[in-house]
Fold these 3 entries.
Entry 1:
Amino acid sequence: NAGVTQTPKFQVLKTGQSMTLQCAQDMNHNSMYWYRQDPGMGLRLIYYSASEGTTDKGEVPNGYNVSRLNKREFSLRLESAAPSQTSVYFCASSDPGGARRDTQYFGPGTRLTVL
Amino acid sequence: EDKVVQSPLSLVVHEGDTVTLNCSYEVTNFRSLLWYKQEKKAPTFLFMLTSSGIEKKSGRLSSILDKKELFSILNITATQTGDSAVYLCAVVPAGGTSYGKLTFGQGTILTVHP
């Protein structure tokens, strides 16, 4: 049981390049999330997916797109990377119907640098 | 807009000390408050609190919620170097269009020296 996995762990991009961050969970959770974490700012929600087939914007969605490929996988795409998107990105999942329905479980993160 | 403020932002103590971390919040429709510990990588879940006055405990860690005064505290007794981490507080809204949109505080960086 791996929990939430993310790839890649590290990435360096040049301004204008595109890339996709991958996330998968094996806990059969319905809901999945993408956050970014910047120094002194905690975690901020980029996009989330309440269930397979649905996605919605979070606090900081500009410059990102997401795809909920199936129940297990939720990807985050940067179409034209900018230096302001340098950050650590975390994927998370939760089971809204479970006993710990509000608890989100996080992946190990992707450290992205945009030059 | 929902808001979560943690204090202090950083704290340095010695092993054996007791620390209290604070989390105050403003949220339109409150459902629960979560505490996480973040070491080098992913935040890991500590506590979920939904009712005032109910203290959650896990070993040397404990937490309590005050829904009237809109704050929570996380206590760590007899600190150890392994407690060094960033402690994050997050509030969970009651649902509707806010479903799943956790709001996190900035975090408290705790450093425990031997």
Entry 2:
Amino acid sequence: DGGITQSPKYLFRKEGQNVTLSCEQNLNHDAMYWYRQDPGQGLRLIYYSQIVNDFQKGDIAEGYSVSREKKESFPLTVTSAQKNPTAFYLCASSRRQGIQETQYFGPGTRLLVL
Amino acid sequence: KQEVTQIPAALSVPEGENLVLNCSFTDSAIYNLQWFRQDPGKGLTSLLLIQSSQREQTSGRLNASLDKSSGRSTLYIAASQPGDSATYLCAVRLGNAGNMLTFGGGTRLMVKP
């Protein structure tokens, strides 16, 4: 079964703690993306990666970090510098940048602050 | 900066009704526009993608139109069903922004049996 998986489904963060959200895809896609969705709002781009070992900041990168050591994986770390991390986080992938390619989305991770 | 707006934010209709969801964008230099469906607590599923050179796309009971010059798109749902209940998001891709999408806030649709 090809697709994008995100884990965990729910994640709780304590004050001052860094947490990492997992995103894995077996679609052989080059590009991967992280979005944040707040209640009743659209998605905002946090980071994206066009190829392994390369990534770029999106519109709201502050307080987040990513890595892209493998084509299949694009983990997102929510650092303690992110003061309002409670949101629904969505990972997506697509075959290539700059081409008419649909982005495929994972099921999301809901992050809550304790 | 591109801004995408969707009106209404929420809509409730009886089953069987035809309905129209609206999406507007401020920068007409788009590469394409896409409509997505999102079920509660889930990821997004692509419904229709319209290239900037196209006027409309159809898939089953769904029809999406694009008027680039006026910065508008509509998603028409014919003979609505309770299973259509979800949030519908539109997203635009600027011509010079690679594969980056700018999303609207979504329209939350409820179809009552």
Entry 3:
Amino acid sequence: DSGVTQTPKHLITATGQRVTLRCSPRSGDLSVYWYQQSLDQGLQFLIQYYNGEERAKGNILERFSAQQFPDLHSELNLSSLELGDSALYFCASSVASQGRGGELFFGEGSRLTVL
Amino acid sequence: SQQGEEDPQALSIQEGENATMNCSYKTSINNLQWYRQNSGRGLVHLILIRSNEREKHSGRLRVTLDTSKKSSSLLITASRAADTASYFCATDMNTGFQKLVFGTGTRLLVSP
């Protein structure tokens, strides 16, 4: 058990809909990362938050947004869903602060299926 | 786009054999990490090697890093069926705050 909790584990929805994925990081970790894993694109970095502030942005679509709340949990919002958004969405956390890279602890992921 | 490319894409060996996976990357890094993923599960950190290190060991794992060639290798010695998984390298690029970019992964199958 990594200590990172993601909900829901599975989600099936229709095109055009909006979903919210939730992540609770390990106790004490200030950084939260979101990744998307699909068969054709591999594991893609979406966005990182550190102590409530956005720190790095990757290949995140404009239809997607995220935030980290004062209690450090994070949410990834996916809107106007398309078939191609079907993927595993992972949240990871770390204690990383500037200049101190370390390991990431991954949750078990949220599997999104868009029909 | 992927920072790291792994080779081979898939590897099939017998129990007891060694498995070697290679990772190449494009830009300068703070560190390089290897992760393991069992099918459909979350990734698990295996080992981290910093840019000023050349080799690191952890149990049956040995990682090397050649920053001049922008490449790394992961060696798993005396493989077991339980080592069957996908293995990913991840590079922490020199951008101030940590931003791990994952490679394409190697699927390892260890047969009893």
